[in-house]
Design brief:
The protein has about 280 residues and is α/β, with parallel strands linked by helices. It contains ten helices and eleven strands. It has two domains: about 90 residues, 3-Layer(aba) Sandwich (Rossmann fold); about 120 residues, Rossmann fold (3-Layer(aba) Sandwich), CATH 3.40.50. Strand 2, helix 2 and strand 3 form a beta-alpha-beta unit. The protein binds NADPH dihydro-nicotinamide-adenine-dinucleotide phosphate (NDP). One of its GO terms (biological process) is L-histidine biosynthetic process.
Length: about 280
């Protein structure tokens, strides 16, 4: 039977660590503050924003929320970002995606100062990841590295197969595994013989956005499976990109959905905010 990698427990630990740092900063009258911008009323986005604010409250991070109407212009959002970039109190700025169709997501995410880009989407932070320099890391892949390390799963020398090459999950995930000395293969929708490659993985990262796509025929005996996908199945139950029931008896460790990768994303966002404040106050 596989070990279940418990994202709830590990993310709670990271949040406790953040809380402790924020408390110490408070004793010196130093604050940590996250600004969250949401445009429109997408239901899923509202839930994500609410959860992020809740996590801030729990840790003691101040938050400034901007709920802007759907018809807000791109220039208005850019203007707000500029003000927040200049606001000394603000350590992190987050624009909840997706944005309405009349906005250029890339232009907006790149307008956020790289020093406050706690989502790790700015080209400067992505570049730092490529070159191995300090910068903000994209929260989901950074959370996965924490899940592996804190579960004592060795990455060095392992064949890590990442399926998915998006800018927010697949690509930074592959780079982070490489940084940890994994031997990395990246697969995508044009990959031939996907199964032949995933069956060689010691660590398989499934991030394609297709419910229960990876069954037991895609995995090697004893592999570690990280499931990034989040979906609702035909019975409205949450599930991932991996068919959990089909693979769990074959693999050595696996993240469940829910309760695996999901909670780590918010925990790492909180971690990035705290890091940003520490940099501002020149604490290392
Ligand atoms: P994207 O849709 O941006 O990327 C999907 C990637 O999967 C693409 O690179 C695509 O290839 C590849 N792909 C799609 N179908 C196949 C296939 N049949 N075989 C091989 N590769 C395939 O998704 P994201 O990276 O943003 O997210 C992936 C999943 O993770 C989603 O379910 C999303 O909801 C979830 N997610 C979960 C988070 C969490 O906190 N748990 C955070 C972020 C995302 P190509 O490039 O060729 O099109």
């Amino acid at each position: 039977m596989a070990n279940i990698i418990d994202g709830k427990v590990i993310s709670a630990k990271i949040k406790e660590e953040c809380k402790e740092i924020v408390l110490k900063l408070k004793e010196e009258e130093k604050t940590v503050c996250l600004a969250v911008i949401q445009v429109g009323t997408d239901v899923a986005s509202s839930v994500y924003v609410k959860n992020k604010i809740k996590a801030c409250e729990y840790i003691g991070i101040l938050s400034k929320t901007y709920e802007l109407p759907e018809e807000t212009t791109q220039d208005e959002v850019l203007q707000l970002i500029e003000e927040l970039n200049d606001d000394q109190e603000v350590d992190g700025i987050l624009v909840q995606l997706p944005l309405p169709a009349h906005m250029d997501e890339n232009k907006i995410t790149q307008a956020i100062s790289a020093k406050k880009d706690v989502d790790g989407f700015h080209d400067e932070n992505v570049g730092a990841l490529v070159t191995g320099h300090k910068g903000f890391l994209s929260c989901t892949p950074a959370g996965i590295i924490e899940l592996l390390k804190r579960s004592q799963i060795e990455i060095e020398g392992k064949h890590c197969v990442v399926v998915g090459r998006s800018n927010i999950v697949g690509k930074p995930m592959a780079l982070l595994l490489l940084r940890e000395n994994g031997t990395v293969t990246i697969c995508h929708s044009k990959t031939k013989d996907l199964k032949e490659i995933t069956k060689q993985a010691d660590i398989l990262i499934a991030a394609i956005g297709k419910p229960k796509f990876f069954d037991e025929t895609y995995v090697k005996d004893g592999a570690v499976i990280i499931d990034v996908g989040i979906h609702r199945d035909a019975h409205n139950k949450l599930c991932g990109d991996v068919d959990f029931d089909a693979v769990q008896s074959k693999v050595s460790a696996i993240t469940p959905v829910p309760g695996g990768v999901g909670p780590m994303t918010i925990a790492m966002l909180m971690y990035n905010c705290v890091q940003s404040a520490k940099r501002k106050y020149k604490i290392d």
